[in-house]
Amino acid sequence: MTPVRQGADHAAIETALAAIAATFAEAGYAPVTTGHLFEAETLIDLYGEDIRARAFLFPGIGGPGGSDEMCLRPDFTVPVVRAHSARGWDRAARYAYQGPVFRRQDPGSTRPTEYLQAGIENLGDPDAAVADAEVLALIRRALEAAGAGPIEISTGDLGIAFALLDALPMPPRRCHQLRRHFWRPARFHELVEEAVAGPSAPGATRARLIAAATGPEPDRAVAVLAEAAGQPIGLREVDEITARARALAEAAGEPPMPAEHAELIETALSIKGPAGNALARLRALTDAAGVDITPALDRFEARLEALDQAGLDAARMPFDAAFGRNLEYYEGFVFEVTARDGSGARPDLPPLAGGGRYDAMTQRLGAARPIPAVGGMIRPEALLAASGERP
Amino acid sequence: MTLTLALPSKGRIQAETIAWFAGHGVEIARTGDARQYAARAEGAAGLEIVMLPAGEIPGALAEGRVDMGVTGEDLIRERVPGWADRISIARQLGFGHADLVVAVPAFWIDVERMADLDAVAEAFRARHGHGLRIATKYHNLTRAFFQAKGVADYRLIDSQGATEAGPMNQSCEAIADITSSGETLRANHLKLVEDGLILQSHAVLCLSKTAEIGAQSRETIDRILGGDATPSG
User: CB of A225 within 8 Å of any CB in chain B?
Assistant: First the structure.
């Protein structure tokens, strides 16, 4: 529902939005506007089916049934990055936006279905540490300009877990699976446990399939088995079944994951505390295990230095290695800003701001290779609620 | 004091519901001609019958437009997000069994479990340029199930009928649908995924938690339920 604002409430939100816009503009972020509506296909393709439960979707007009489903924008990042890409990927750009976003909420939830976001996207800056720090520092400056009270900034870095998965010796197929399900922690944990347990003996059907796929004339042998099981229907063809059967054969021959590797992954993901300490613990943990993720940890350290230079007390900022695992498009630095009062955090309020790095998403949106991309957004209504402007 | 009971407006579930009530001391008789969707009850003072399509009964219960209703558990869970706050299931009625299952082409001999479906989904996207299309009319239940099983790279396609024929017509790769026997699946060259049982559904007698049900009506409900305790709410 659209919140109706008038009188002092209206003035307060307009003042906050103007202060945020002025701060972003001064820092060289060019204002952009996007449509409220876009094709659902892009969104669902990017975020997966789960987003459909959270987005307002409806049929478009004039297209064939369902294929032109439309969506009220659930955030600005995708529309802004798409607008950027329309004029080519190979250039740096800084954008600022403001406007409402739309999210379906569970019945009975008090969370808003429509709320304002005022944010920035920083694209194409090759110095990731500096860009990360610039975005967070600017978000903080804009919060101050808009009159935010005491805040706490929490951070994470998903790049560390990915570096660890890449550095640990394991079959490429397993590494790929773990990376693929990193954003689904329950499934990820299950995959780690399965890897430690090692391959189980295949059932009779599966054993026959693997034998067929690894013997002479695999496509023909698999086709015989498959056609005995059922008429070939649909788009998926026999050679796709053969390819998958070969992957199963490979997986059956893979060594189990050493239990200490599993422990290392889970321990690294459980690290929490001031960022400076977290960095030291991650260095000690990986050194002791003989696993080299130096480049990722150096990036973490460079970011802390850049944040210090930007005037933030980076070493003491809370860090949580698992933070951001529920947001599929982030894969590096992530942050969230919450309001504090005398006694601590304000769990009654949504975060005042949040953001992170999403290079890989640019590739899924059509870039030939991942483009450096980091952004952040403020929720002005939460900000005003926190500073008591609105009840 | 009236107590309204929503009865499915047609089909076997209606006949079985009427028989169930007869066994609990309430005679329901249809009135007028078959297309009038009207009925009256005898044996329970103040009980009024409203005939609704089974699919509309969950919404009527959730909004408190009726006090009681009989429909499929699958429809309650699918149509009313957060249903447990608004509807209580008073009785499994012992009929209307139907399983909501995930089925794939029997030809896919490399798919036995949901984890296989996930692996296939990723390879399928790489080859065909889109994720697996799963046809269903049970969007909420299917999405929650796929999420719990950690399946990615799929999308739901709405299908309001003849869902099992979808894979053969290439309008989808797999389905999530109600099956009371395996016959239709086999006829359409499909098979069950081993751990693909989303829900075992039955006909259920439900009470609205949002309707105002007076003390007198409560007594009537208790009597119909055979003197057992009325579920809370």
Answer: yes
User: Could you check whether B3-96+202-224 and B98-201 share the same CATH topology?
Assistant: yes
- Per-residue pLDDT for chain B (233 aa), expressed as one digit of tens each? 689 999 998 889 999 999 999 999 999 988 877 667 778 888 888 899 999 999 999 999 999 999 999 999 999 999 998 899 999 999 999 999 999 999 999 999 999 999 999 999 999 988 998 889 999 999 999 999 998 998 988 989 889 888 999 999 999 999 999 986 788 899 999 999 999 999 999 999 999 999 998 888 988 898 888 744 444 43
Summarised one tens digit per residue, pLDDT across range B189-206 is 999 999 999 999 999 999
**Architecture, CATH, for domain B3-96+202-224:** 3-Layer(aba) Sandwich (3.40)
| Best A39, A236, A250, A329 residue to mutate vs chain B (most B CBs within 10 Å) | A236
What is the H or E stretch that residue B217 is in?
A: helix B215-224
Q: Are strands B47-52 and A373-378 parallel, antiparallel or unpaired?
A: unpaired
Q: Which residues of A touch B149 (CB under 8 A)?
A: 187
Best mutation site among B77, B86, B87, B110 for testing chain A: the one with the most A CBs within 10 Å? B110
Q: What are chain A's domains?
A: 7-36+73-165+272-386 (3.30.930.10), 204-252 (no CATH)
Contact B105 A206 (CB under 8 A): no
Instruction: Delimit the domains of chain B by residue range.
Output: 3-96+202-224, 98-201
Task: Please state which CATH number belongs to domain B98-201.
Answer: 3.40.190.10
* pLDDT one-digit tens code per residue, A303-337: 999 999 999 999 999 999 988 876 667 889 999 99
Place of tokens 């750009």: A93
B105, B110, B156 member nearest A234 (Cβ): B105
Tell me, what amino acid is at A326? N
For helices A294-309 and A128-145, the axis angle rounded to 10 degrees is 40
Q: State yes or no: pLDDT of A342 exceeds 70.
A: no
Q: What is the ipTM of this complex?
A: 0.84
- By three-state DSSP, how is residue A145 classified? helix
Q: What is the pTM of this model?
A: 0.85
Amino acid at A191: L
Cβ contact A71:A55 at 8 Å: yes
Residue A375 DSSP symbol? E
